[in-house]
Amino acid sequence: MCLPPRDNHLMATLPEVQDWLRNSPRIIVLSGAGMSAESGVPTFRGLDGLWRNFNPLDLATPEAFANNPTLVWEWYDWRRSLVAATHPNPGHLALAQLELQHHLTVITQNVDGLHTRAGSTHVIELHGSLWRTRCTACQSIRTNLTPKLSTLPPLCPDCGQLLRPGVVWFGENLPPMAWEASLEAIAEANLLLVIGTSGTVYPAAELVPLAKQAGAKVVEINLEETPLSPLADATLLGPGGQILPKLLQ
Ligand code: OAD
């Protein structure tokens, strides 16, 4: 059998990528759960991934919240306390450092807030945040920085209806402003770093072909190849918390 020729995206070396980085005034990061894995935050689809142990249909849809708000609230409350006990890892810190030298925007699918805690200031939270709530009726948004809000879903101080976690659930649209800001940032990028995402959830993953079309170089950092790897100019295989500090050396 004749296989099509494989491109050599795995062959780019660290010094080559360091060179691209130095010569890229505008850098975008697209991060996923693997970015926070070394902080101790579980991913979704890995061996111990959340979606291996929990059914997203029971916990991460508007219907699930309507059917059993207490169960859904408790699950997010558990995730909040888990994240509150973690710290940004050397990968998050390296990106915050990179922002001091480049125009850098982080577009994250993560809801843990670790990029901001590491010091990154241009962070677009595509899937919302564990640290926000939104009213199911009047839609008012609250930022709440305490790990444990309450074990029951609290009520909106404005209208008295249920507050829900401020995250994007399956079947919901992304926050329009976050998506538009992402598209604008991608259109001007010279380099896109795709870190710790399986690239299976859309529309977030769509940002990678869009960056290529806009002429950016794409560098993927992951433990393994993903469906996005064929689009990447380089895939650096390994943990982000080790590769990112090396990239900056
Ligand atoms: P996944 O759990 O699907 O993928 C995590 C990726 O991180 C995998 O490709 C791993 O190989 C990689 N990985 C794990 N540890 C790593 C490390 N230390 N360094 C680098 N890479 C590592 O997570 P996401 O792609 O973020 O959405 O999932 C996307 C979305 O699906 C999430 O935002 C969430 C989920 O359903 C919603 O909840 C709406």
Short summary of the structure?
This protein has helices spanning 14-22, 34-37, 50-53, 56-59, 62-67, 69-84, 90-98, 114-118, 176-187, 207-213, 240-247; strands at residues 26-31, 103-108, 123-125, 128-135, 141-143, 163-167, 191-195, 217-222, 234-237.
Could you please describe the fold and organization of this structure?
Helix content is 34%, strand content 18%. It is an alpha/beta fold. α7 packs parallel to α11 (240-247). The longest helix is centred in the N-terminal third of the chain and has 16 residues, at 69-84. The protein is globular, with a radius of gyration of 19 Å. The structure holds 2'-O-acetyl adenosine-5-diphosphoribose (OAD). 2'-O-acetyl adenosine-5-diphosphoribose binds at residues 32-34, 37-38, 43-46, 49, 60, 109, 127, 168, 196-198, 200-201, 221-224, 226, 239-241. Residues 32-34, 37-38, 43-46, 49, 60, 109, 127, 168, 196-198, 200-201, 221-224, 226, 239-241 line the site of 2'-O-acetyl adenosine-5-diphosphoribose.
